[in-house]
Amino acid sequence: MLPENAKNIVNAADKKMQDAIAYLEEDLKTYRVGKANPSVFNGVMVDYYGTPTPIQQVASVTTPDAKTLAIQPWEKSLIGKIEKAILDANLGLTPSNNGEIIRCVVPALTEERRRELIKKAKAAGENTKVAVRNARRDAVEQLKKAQKASEMTEDAQREGEDEVQKVTDKNVKKVDEIIAAKEKDILTV
User: Fold this and answer.
1) CATH fold of the domain at 4-30+110-187
2) DSSP β-bridge partners for residue 73
């Protein structure tokens, strides 16, 4: 049975690992993979009366079909600024408007672009694994410090380290699964 202070260290490490994985999942949503997805505009800022503002806060973004993104600004005066922001974000999308709605047709991915996206996704996965391993290292150091400070027994420390390793393995496996799923998504034509 793991003592309370060791459990807290393991749980804190698991939380850090989960946060790194959540960040990875959010990052992967912004990859344009040939299907219209409003999250490609996450991070695109529009000049709204001198203040950089996310597109989602000045317009509604919808997907009328699998290959089109429609952006309906809440103020018509923003159409030009939103188009400029999309072009400046270099997303590979070309906006066009009819005076009311901005449409972006999502072009099919080239083979070269697919390879680039897979490489980028794998790099993001590796960075997440590094974050997971850093959380493991920090937890192991905390367990060792607690044992040296006589806050827990050597057996409890070893048991805690084993538990941290199990949590680490589980989270690294989850990262691999997420990257494999994204790779499959990118390769699906």
Assistant:
1) Topoisomerase I; Chain A, domain 4 (1.10.132)
2) 59
Indicate the domain borders of the chain.
4-30+110-187, 38-105
Query: According to the model, what pLDDT value does residue 138 have?
Result: 93
Per the CB < 8 A criterion, the answer to whether 46 and 87 are in contact is no
| CB-based contact 36:68 (threshold 8 Å) | yes
Where on the phi/psi map is residue 98: left (φ > 0), alpha (ψ -120 to 50), or beta?
Answer: alpha
Structure tokens at 188: 């699906």
Q: Which class is domain 38-105?
A: alpha beta
What is the distance between the alpha carbons of residues 167 and 163, in angstroms, rounded to a whole number? 6
Looking at per-residue pLDDT, the higher value among 93 and 12 belongs to 12
Q: Hey, what are 167's tokens?
A: 């949590």
Type of residue found at 146: A
Interval 9-22 mean pLDDT: 92
C-alpha to C-alpha distances, 19 to 26, 87, 154, nearest whole angstrom:
11, 31, 29
Chain position carrying tokens 């997907």: 63
